[in-house]
Amino acid sequence: MDSVTCFNSFDDVVDDWSRLLPSCALNTLFITSEWQRIWWREFGGENTLYLLRFENRDGVQGIAPLMSDDDDLTLVGDRDVCDYNDFLVSRGYETSF
C-alpha cells in the first residue's frame, strides 16, 4: 500500500467503504458501514475509534475499523463475538494488506 490515513469518524470514510465493500471476499452485514456505525454509537462508550484507510495507485484497497480502550487495540465490535469482525480488503490485496 502506498498510504495509510487514519480517521475518527465514519462520515469520513463512508463513501470509500461503500465502494470497497462489494469487492471484498468477505461481505457480510457485520462489516457494513451501517452496522459498524450503529454498533459504535450504542456500544463504543469511552473507546477511541480509529478507521484506517489503505490506498495504492488503484485507489482504496482496505479499511481497518479499529478501537482502543487505552490498553488494547481491537476490531470494532463485540470482543466476545469476534467471528464476524474483520477488515475490509479488496479481492487480490489480502496478502499485501
Query: Sheet with the most strands?
Result: 5 strands, antiparallel
In the predicted model, the low-confidence regions spanning at least 5 consecutive residues are none
* Class derived from helix and strand content: alpha+beta
> Percent helix among the residues?
10-25%
Short summary:
The chain has helices at residues 14-20, 33-43; strands at 3-7, 48-56, 59-68, 73-75, 88-89.
SSE blueprint:
Layout: E1 3-7, H1 14-20, H2 33-43, E2 48-56, E3 59-68, E4 73-75, E5 88-89
Antiparallel strand pairs: 1-2, 2-3, 3-4, 3-5
Describe it for me?
With 97 residues, the protein is α+β, with helices and mostly antiparallel strands. The chain is 19% helix and 30% strand. It is built from 2 helices and 5 strands; from the N terminus they run βααββββ. It has helices at residues 14-20, 33-43, and strands spanning 3-7, 48-56, 59-68, 73-75, 88-89. Strands 1, 2, 3, 4 and 5 form a 5-stranded antiparallel sheet that branches. A hairpin with a 2-residue loop joins strand 2 and strand 3 (59-68). It is globular and about 35 Å long. The relative contact order is 0.24. The model has no long low-confidence stretch (mean pLDDT 91).
Quick tags:
97 residues, 30% strand, alpha+beta, 2 helices, five-stranded antiparallel β-sheet, single chain
